[in-house]
């Protein structure tokens, strides 16, 4: 399941759906399937700006589609937000999905994965903050020692 957050779309697929989407965008309306496929590719891009664009397209789709499509949008909104480390937002979408379908094992696994990533990122954040504090304390200690010496 962890690879669902690490999966990267091929450049060819992204370009193919981008071209299809942009052609329809120039017409009267964009087919929701084309918009979904393009958004699906974007949230699996290696570039955060693409992922954010995919999230915007999925949010737009969520507001104008039926229940089945809403579930798909919620799932990929959770993945997209998790990929750009917006874990609370990702969890919001997971919870919304699980309200519709509480026994969905795929989404339950995604929820656990996001929670693990949140914990890992939190621990990294604490380690970095701890390192900064130790560094500042060392510099201050050195400064105080030098001031006493002089």
Helices, strands, pairings?
Elements lengths: L2 H4 L4 H16 L5 H12 L4 H15 L4 H17 L3 H14 L4 H45 L1
Q: Tags for this entry?
A:
single chain; 150 residues; mainly alpha; Serine Threonine Protein Phosphatase 5, Tetratricopeptide repeat; 7 helices; 82% helix; 0% strand; extended; Mitochondrial fission 1 protein; mitochondrion outer membrane; mitochondrion; apoptosis
Compact summary:
This protein is mainly α and 150 residues long. 82% of the residues lie in helices and 0% in strands.
What does this structure look like?
Helix 4 (48-62) packs antiparallel against helix 5. The chain is an all-alpha fold and 150 residues long. The chain has helices spanning 3-6, 11-26, 32-43, 48-62, 67-83, 87-100, 105-149. The protein has one domain (11-121): Tetratricopeptide repeat domain (Serine Threonine Protein Phosphatase 5, Tetratricopeptide repeat). The termini are far apart. It is extended. Helices cover 82% and strands 0% of the residues. The chain crosses the membrane at residues 125-147. It is found in: Mitochondrion outer membrane; Peroxisome membrane.
CATH level 1 class label: Mainly Alpha
The rough form would be described as: extended
Mean pLDDT: 87
Number of E strands: 0
Strand content: under 5%
- Which value, in Å, is the CA radius of gyration? 22 Å
- Regions with pLDDT < 50 over 5+ consecutive residues? none
Classified in CATH, the superfamily is Tetratricopeptide repeat domain
CATH architecture: Alpha Horseshoe
Can you summarize the main beta sheet?
none
Helix content: over 70%
> In the CATH scheme, what's the topology name?
Serine Threonine Protein Phosphatase 5, Tetratricopeptide repeat
Number of domains: 1
What is the N-to-C succession of helices and strands?
HHHHHHH
Spatial gap, N to C terminus? 61 Å
Report the structural category. Answer: mainly alpha
Number of contiguous helices: 7
Protein name: Mitochondrial fission 1 protein
Function: Involved in the fragmentation of the mitochondrial network and its perinuclear clustering.
Membrane topology: Single-pass membrane protein
Family: Belongs to the FIS1 family.
């Amino acid at each position: 399941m962890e690879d669902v957050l690490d999966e990267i779309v091929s450049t060819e697929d992204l370009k193919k759906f981008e071209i299809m989407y942009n052609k329809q965008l120039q017409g009267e309306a964009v087919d929701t399937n084309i918009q979904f496929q393009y958004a699906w590719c974007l949230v699996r891009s290696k570039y955060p700006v693409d992922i954010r664009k995919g999230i915007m397209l999925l949010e737009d789709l969520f507001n104008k589609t039926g229940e089945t499509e809403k579930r798909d949008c919620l799932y990929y909104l959770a993945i997209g937000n998790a990929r750009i480390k917006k874990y609370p937002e990702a969890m919001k979408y997971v919870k919304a999905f699980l309200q519709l379908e509480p026994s969905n094992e795929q989404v339950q696994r995604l929820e656990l994965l996001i929670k693990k990533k949140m914990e890992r990122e939190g621990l990294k954040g604490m380690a970095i903050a701890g390192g900064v504090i130790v560094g500042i304390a060392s510099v201050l200690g050195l400064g105080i020692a030098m001031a006493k010496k002089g």
